[in-house]
What does this fold into?
Amino acid sequence: MRESGSDQADILWVLLFVGLTACSSVTDHRPPGSDAAPPTAEPNDGPWCTDHGFCWVVPRPQGNGLRDVDGLGPTEVVAVGDYGTSLRFDGGAWLPLLTGTTDALGHVWVAPDGAAWMAPSSSHDSGVYLLRTHNGEVERFGLPDADLIVGLDGSGDQPLVAERYAVYRLEAGGFRTIFTPPADHTVVDALVAGTSTWVLTATPLIPDGPDPTTVLFRLSQEDVVERIADPASTRHLARLGDGTIVVFDRRLYRVEDGSLEEMSSLERISAVWGTSWDDLWVVTNDGTYHNETRVGVESRAHGHLWGTADGSFGVRVGMRGAISTWSGETWRDLDEPTELSSTLDPNSFGELPTELWAGEASAAWASSPNDVWRVTGAWDEAMLEHWDGQAWTREREVPQGGRMRGTGPDNVWLLPRAGFILQFDGTAWVRHAQDALPGNAWAVRDFCTQGPADTHLVGSDGENGMLWHWDGLEWSLELTVEDSELRSIYPGRRTGELFVLSQHPDGAELLRLQDYEIVEASELPGTGFYLRSLIVDDAGVRLLRGGQLLERRNGSSWTLSDVGFDHRFARIWEGPSGTWVHDGDVATVRR
It folds into this structure.
């Protein structure tokens, strides 16, 4: 994609949907012996769903990060991102595109015929490749000698692929090398402008070493006709609507009379688009600017930008599926309706996870519709708030909430992402310092509470897993599990029964405790990393491991299913309307 105003451009966006229609197909041009592409699947109407049965609830249409965007105009735009996500905008709606991969896609170019060419953002076990999706069909083209694709553009129906050690053009006979960098340089970006190809190269970035040296080459066919040394460190190229070439990264420059002219005082630039140097949109690490004037509030949500050559339409994409469009007058964030009823609706109490019912909080718990606690806000300015049935009251500043649970108005606990635990006793919040726990606590990962005098914490001292108990007066260390970390805890159905997730160097186990004695240890399949949450009920056991769901129904073996999104989900609930999964911030899906 080019963050510019060429004739290409409107946003064709791609969501994690490894399938489009039953008549779609995948054609593989990779060398023999390569792994086959994943099977396709039927799409779901309404919410964005995966073939694993999970559907996005917040945000909508989906929450995977978007890494690039390109298009032909306001009715033909494509965006790509994490977990094979690809979305297409037709001027009226965002539709999923078939990609046949779950690799993170970092580059997209929309050809004049509407075909979307895509490339992964990093190297994968399946090798380096290009995807072409058009009219419901996907073709895959392998680059067996390539290391990492750093740029993608094109002209006509021929994509231009910038790989670290060469620049290729895909022709009828296959990939043809048109440029190789100097021996001490690697390619960092490339684009097409009219009959010229521009290639940016750089020396390696060495920690605590000198700044890299970058050189901009202009090619006519395969011949270098211009060479511009760049003393500043730049990593990206863009083409403005009037044909101006700009280079940027830490600072922004334009190519002028065979040299680079600094154009802006802005720093740490991630994307550029405009009709000319005097009509320029710039996305930086702290927000979007027009001609060096910030537009809107400070935000790191958007990192990629594309628009038409005349400046009448543009698109920003970025973190957590953020999408914003420019209509010629203002930027408008995509705000599709969700399945959620109005927050704090008494009729929906108990139907939704409390974090959503209370307003997309990072942590929340409610004993009734008139007694609700929640944590909202960013990490360094989060606020603990209480709802009494009439209004929210700001109680105190806290680190962004990790987990909140309780049993009634006089027993609510909050485990923030910090070194202490908070307990509400019906009158005030009491702070329990982590370093006051017996056994030299290094980390507390989870807790469960069954009453004001019966709360358990699990974590570790850095080497051994630990389980602590609060009896209403003091903490006691009740269990130590050598060479492990206890990650999650859930009360059983019998008195004195607890279920604990234990992570150790060789994997992980589900421990069943009776009166603090381990009476059963069930080895979990796969790695022990990213274990987050646990539910035990009449149906069996369910727990999260990053973006995967492990289940063991009563009397059966463990089964593993992929939630199907690029998130390390942190919490799981079982409710009347299905299984809910949350990432600890706002991203939420439901099965």
In short: Helices lie at 354-357. The CA atoms of residues 348 and 558 lie 33 Å apart.
